[in-house]
Amino acid sequence: MNLQHQTKKDLSMPVQYVKGIGPKRAEALANHNIKTVRDLIYYFPYDYIDLSKVGKIVDLRKHADSGEWVTVIGTIRTFDLIGRPPRQRLSVILEDESGTIQLVFFQSVQYFKKAFEVGEIIAASGKVTIFNRHPQIVHPSIDRLSPADDEDGGLQGFLHTRGIVPKYGSSGELQSVNLNIKGFRRIMKATLNEFLQFAEEPLPSSIIDKYKYLPIKQALSSIHFPETQQLLDEARLRLKFDELFSMQLLLALRRQSVKVELPGITFDVKSSLARQLVDSLPFKLTKAQVKVIKEITDDLKSGKPMNRLLQGDVGSGKTIVALIAMLIGIDNGYQTALMAPTEILAEQHFKTLANFLKGLNVNVRLLIGGQRVRIRDDVLEEIRTGAANIVVGTHALIQEHVMFKKLGLVIIDEQHRFGVAQRVALREKGIESLSGGPNPHILVMTATPIPRTLSLTVYGDLDVSTINELPAHRIPIKTILNFESQLSSVYRFIHEQVKDGRQVYIVYPLVEESEKLDLKAATESYEKLKSEVFTDYRVGLIHGRMSSDEKDNIMTDFEQKKIDILVSTTVIEVGIDVPNASVMVIEHAERLGLSQLHQLRGRVGRGAEQSYCILIAPGWMGRKIKVGSTIPTLDGVEDNKRIAERRLRTMLETLDGFKIAEIDLELRGPGDYFGTRQSGLPTLRLANLLTDGDILLSARHEAFHLIDTDPHLRLPEHRVLRKSFDEWMKDALGLLHGG
Ligand code: ADP
Ligand code: MG
Q1: Among 467, 494, 523, where does a domain finish?
Q2: Are strands 503-508 and 581-586 parallel, antiparallel or unpaired?
Q3: Most buried among 14, 238, 666, 686, by the most CB within 10 A?
Q4: How confident is the model at residue 665 (pLDDT cuts 50, 70, 90)?
C-alpha cells in the first residue's frame, strides 16, 4: 500500500515529499529555514536572466556606444592581467560560435581573476564600447552557467532556452547537495508541478478584482518561471501586495485590540491647569501645535486608550504639547509619566517641566538609575501614594517595583534613540507593568520625522499626529563643512562667537565598536582645547561614562553660562535645550549617521541669534563634496565613502527633517531601520518600503477596511485569509506572544 497516495497533499507538507528532495537536501534546506513545501514555493528568485534577449557576439558591434544593455553567452577562452597596480586591469576573452569579445575589469581585479576558469560558460551583460577598434564590455554583470547547469547540455542548450530563467540564492551548503542554479530550478519545477494546485487563494475576490491582480496560483507560477516580462511584473506586484497586506493586517489587528477591545479612561479635557499654563507662556502656540493638541484631546475624551505617535522635527515644540496632555490627566485625578531614553534627557525634561510649572500646584518628580537611594525611596513613595503628579524618568520607570497609585497617561519621548525593536518592547512592557488597573493613554514622541511609508509600518498600529511647522522667528541654522586642515580657522570662529557671548558645543562621535578610543580622543581634545586653544574661556567635558551627578552638574553649569565651550561625546545628541548655544561643531562628522547629525544640529538654532553647525570631515573627502554635485559611481569598496559623502552633502543641502529622514532611509536601507525581526513585523522579501509606497497604501487601506468589517476574520469568505495569515505570521507571532 502506498501511504503517500492516501495522504491529502497540501503546502504544509515537509519538503521531502517533493520528488528529488531526499533527507540530505531536506536538511540543507531546513538550515536555510525552508522546511515545508510552502517555504520552498515562497523562496523566490533573487533575479532572472532574460535569455530571450541574448545576442550573438558578432552582432555586438552594432550596439557599440549605443548605451543599450546587451547580454551574450559564451565560453571563457583566456584571461590575463594587464599592466601593473594601481592601473592594472583584467582582460577576459569570451567566445561564442560567432566570434569573441573582450570583458574588462578595473576594480577588484584579483577577485575576478580567481573567480574565472578557462572553459567556463558565462552570460555577460553590459554596455558595449569600442576600444582599439575592438568591441568590449567594461565591468559586465556576470552569470555563471557552468555546462552542468544547462539542461540540454552544452552551450547550444542555453541559446535555445529563449525564456526568462530564475536565479536562486544558494550557499556552500546548498551547493554541496547540488542545489545550485540548475538544481534549484529543477526542484522548483517539480514542486510547482505537484503542489501548486493545492495553493489556496488568500485574498478576497473583491480585492483581486479591484486591483486586477493575478490569482495566487498564476502569481506563484510566474514569479518562478515567467513566460514574459509582463507576467513577471504582474506576479511581483501581486506578491508584494500580499506581503504588505499581511503586515498591515497584523497592524490593523493590533490596533483593533487596543482601540476596540480595551476600555480606556475618559478624561474631561477642560482643564484649568492646562489653561493656566497656556496663559503663562511667553509665546503663542503654533497652528500645528494647536492642531495636534486637538487630536490628542479627542483621544483623551473618547473612552478608548490613546495610542498615538507625535512626530515633529527637532525644535518644533513637542514638550509643551506633552505637558498640556499631562495637565489634563492631572486635573482628572490621574498621575502621568514621561519616559526619556537617557538620564541627561530625563533631567533636562524634569527641569524644563518644573520651569513651565512654576506657580502651578503640580508635583513633578524625577526617577533615574543614578539617584541617591534616599531621594529615590522618597520618589518611589510619592509614586505609590499618588503625591507625585508627574514622574519623569528613564526606563527605570518601568521596573517592577515602581507602583503607581493611579496612572492615566504615559508619554514616551524616544527622540529616535530607542531602536524600533526596543520601542515595541518598551511600549508593551509599559502597558503591562504600568497599567495595573485601567489602560493608560500612550503618546510616543519622536524627534526625527520618519518617512510616511515607515510610519505606516513600524508605527503602523499608532495614530499619527505631526507638527509640521517650527515656531516663527527662528533663524535658519547655517551649516558649514570644514576639513581637518581648517581646524585653526574653526577655532578662530569659536573665539569670536564666545567673545560675543555665545556658547559652543564640540562633539566627538562615540561609536560602539571603538568606544574606548573615541572616549580617549574626546578627553584628550578637551585637555588640549582647555590648556592650549581656549585658555581664556571656560571649557567643560561631558560624556556618558560620568555619574549622573557629574553630568547633572556640568549641564547645569552650561545652562547657567558657567561653561562657554562644552566638549562632548554624542550623549548630547538628544533633546538638550540651551538656547544661548549657537555653534555646534561636529568632529569626524563622516562617521555619524544622517539622523544623528540632524539631531545634533538641532541642539542649536533655538535662540534669537544666528546659529552655525560646523561639520569637520577628513581631508580625503575634500575634493568630492559640493552641493548638488554628483559623484562618479564605483562599485563595492567605494560604497562606504560614497555614502558618507552623501550624508554630509545632504546636511549642507537641507534643514528639512523629513527630507533627511527619506535620504537616511535610502542610504541605510529599510532593513537597518527595522533592526531585526524583533520589531514583530514579518520580513519583506519582495516589497521595498522606499519604492513600493503606493502598493503599501492600498494594502493598508484594504487591511484596515477588512478588519473594520470583520475584526476577527470570522466570515466564511475570509477563511483562507485567516489560515494564510497565521502562516505568514508564524515568525512574527512568536514574538508577539513573547515566545
Ligand atoms: P522638540 O520638539 O525638539 O522637543 P522643544 O519642545 O524642546 O522641541 O521646543 C524647542 C524650544 O522651542 C523650547 O525652548 C520651547 O520652549 C520653544 N517653543 C515651543 N513652542 C513654541 C512656540 N509656539 N513658539 C516659540 N517657542 C516655542
Ligand atoms: Mg524634545
Answers
A1: 467
A2: parallel
A3: 238
A4: confident
Atom of ligand 1 nearest to the CA of 606: 11
pLDDT at residue 361 tops 50: yes
CATH code for position 6: 1.10.150
pLDDT tens digits, one per residue of 279-337 = 999 899 999 999 999 999 999 999 888 889 898 887 889 999 999 999 999 999 999 99
Q: Give the ligand with the smallest distance to the CA of 448.
A: 1
Confidence category of residue 416, pLDDT binned at 50, 70, 90: low
Q: Measured from the CA of 312, which atom of ligand 1 is nearest? A: 2
Instruction: Give the domain-ending residue among 415, 432, 467.
Output: 467
Specify whether 648 is located in the same domain as 533.
Answer: yes
Q: Ligand 2 mean position to 566 CA, how many Å? A: 20
Q: Which residues of 650-661 are buried (b: 16+ CB within 10 A; e: fewer)?
A: bbeeebebbebb
Is 666 within a domain?
no
Ligand 1 centroid to residue 277 C-alpha, Å: 14
Does residue 629 sit in the same domain as residue 582? Answer: yes
Residues 494 and 582 in one domain: yes
Please, what is the average pLDDT of the chain?
Answer: 83
Whether residues 178 and 194 fall in one domain? yes
Residue closest via CA to ligand 1's atom 24 equals 471
CATH for 282: 3.40.50.300
Enumerate helices (H) and strands (E) in the chain, giving the number of each. Answer: 27, 23
* Range of the structural domain that residue 490 is part of: 478-654
Query: Which numbered ligand comes closest to the C-alpha of 315?
Result: 1
Nearest ligand to residue 286 Cα: 1
Ligand 1 centroid–CA 357 distance in Å is 15
Question: Which residue's CA is the nearest one to ligand 1's atom 9?
Answer: 317
Q: How far apart are CA 167 and CA 283, in angstroms?
A: 62
Q: Rounded to whole angstroms, how far apart are CA atoms 381 and 599?
A: 36
In a domain? residue 717: no
Q: Residue 268 pLDDT more than 80?
A: yes
Query: What is the count of structural domains for the chain?
Result: 4
Please choose, from the candidates 151, 176, 185, the residue with its C-alpha nearest in 3D space to the C-alpha of residue 40. Answer: 185
- Same domain membership, residue 435 and residue 556: no
Q: What is the pLDDT of residues 77-113, one digit of tens each?
A: 998 988 887 778 899 999 998 999 999 988 878 878 8
Q: How far is the CA of 319 from the centre of ligand 1 (A)?
A: 7
pTM for this structure? 0.68
Phi-psi region of 511 (alpha: psi -120 to 50; beta: other; left: phi over 0): beta
Give the Å distance between the CA of 350 and the centre of ligand 1: 15
- Calculate mean pLDDT across residues 703-707: 94
Instruction: Give the Å distances, CA to CA, from 523 to 490, 510, 535, 540, 545.
Output: 19, 12, 16, 10, 12
Q: DSSP for 456-478? A: TTTTTTSEEEEE--PPTTPPPPE
Whether residues 83 and 183 fall in one domain: no
List all residues whose CB is within 6 A of at least one atom of ligand 1.
283-286, 289, 312, 314-320, 447, 471, 577, 606
**Which pLDDT belongs to residue 624?**
53
Index of the ligand 1 atom closest to the CA of residue 473 = 25
Same domain, 64 and 100: yes
369 C-alpha to center of ligand 2: Å?
21
Residues within 5 Å of ion ligand 2, judged at the Cβ atom = 575
Residue 429's pLDDT band, with cuts at 50, 70 and 90, is: very low
Residue found under cell 487601506: 701
Does residue 408 sit in the same domain as residue 300? yes
Q: What is the mean pLDDT of residues 41-51?
A: 86
Is residue 228 domain-resident? no
Answer yes or no: is 431 within a domain. Answer: yes
